[in-house]
Design brief:
With 286 residues, the protein is mainly beta. Helix content is 8%, strand content 50%.
Length: 286
């Protein structure tokens, strides 16, 4: 059964907020000597993107600061973050997924990742991009929308400031940027997006969010109250979705695998980019 939590505020609608548009693929090396925020947002802003999703494979950070999912401090939230952590030395990224958007008119990133710390510990969580500096390059793949705006706003249901999406209709769109609200199963949300667009087949690009624990198709369960996750791969075939995640528990441990369909409710929010199988125009830059 899917675990759910009662949020502090009134329900927000729609439960799966979608905006349709044209997505453009962009790849570039991760620039060194600047913050992770600058290295990622610079090329996206230059490309004219209003929102999108990013995957980084490889790279190194020093200094490096992050937080992990944690229990609530009080009744104003159902979950919160740990205090920031900053391991001494070079931390090596395995993979990071980032949502790109805007906060008060400036570029903004939401980043979940898996990495190896200087002592060899493999961990994951929520990177603070403005406080982490790139010292080793990695490969960046981005899927951006010139016509879908992703922007932060206060969400009364969760009492957090979260990304929302604004754009065109989804019927007939080649790609969709979506925000999934709490207690909606993420796999079923992907299927709902595909159905709304009239796609029988689609792919999930990038994407990240939080879940109430996690339940995998092979029977494994992460029993923690809160987990932060990033999508490793996601597909819709003949209308049915399969989503493979890296799941970070409240101790920073990493669990990986395909989610059980119908058993994984969103905790706070989930940022999704879903693309019809013929929906991507590709541009590559040096």
């Amino acid at each position: 059964m899917m675990r759910t939590l009662v949020q502090p505020g009134p329900l927000g609608f729609p439960r799966v907020e979608m905006a349709g548009g044209v997505v453009e693929a962009l790849s570039f090396p991760l620039r060194t000597g600047v913050t992770l925020h600058e290295a990622v947002t610079g090329p996206l802003v230059a490309a004219g993107f209003q929102g999108g999703t990013v995957v980084i494979e490889g790279g190194a950070l020093d200094p490096f600061r992050y937080v992990m999912p944690g229990p609530p401090d009080d009744a104003s939230h159902v979950a919160y973050f740990t205090a920031p952590r900053a391991p001494v030395g070079v931390t090596r990224l395995e993979r990071a997924n980032l949502t790109f958007g805007w906060a008060e008119g400036a570029p903004f990133l939401h980043c979940h990742a898996v990495w190896v710390e200087p002592d060899g510990s493999r961990r994951g969580g929520h990177i603070l991009p403005r406080e982490s500096v790139v010292v080793g390059s990695g490969a960046v793949s981005a899927w951006g929308f010139p016509d879908v705006r992703v922007e932060t706003g206060f969400d009364a249901e969760t009492n957090f400031t979260l990304f929302g999406v604004k754009g065109g209709a989804v019927a007939g769109a080649s790609a969709v940027m979506a925000r999934v609200r709490p207690n909606v199963d993420v796999t079923l949300a992907v299927e709902e997006i595909a159905a709304a667009c009239g796609w029988s087949d689609a792919v999930v690009r990038g994407s990240l969010g939080s879940l109430v624990g996690a339940s995998f198709a092979d029977g494994r369960v992460v029993g923690d109250l809160a987990t932060e996750v990033l999508v490793r791969s996601g597909r819709v075939r003949a209308g049915r979705a399969e989503v493979d995640l890296a799941v970070v528990d409240m101790g920073g441990g990493v669990h990986e695998g395909v989610l059980v369909r119908g058993g994984n409710g969103v905790l706070i929010t989930f940022d999704l980019v879903v693309v019809g199988t013929k929906g991507t125009h590709v541009h590559v830059t040096d």
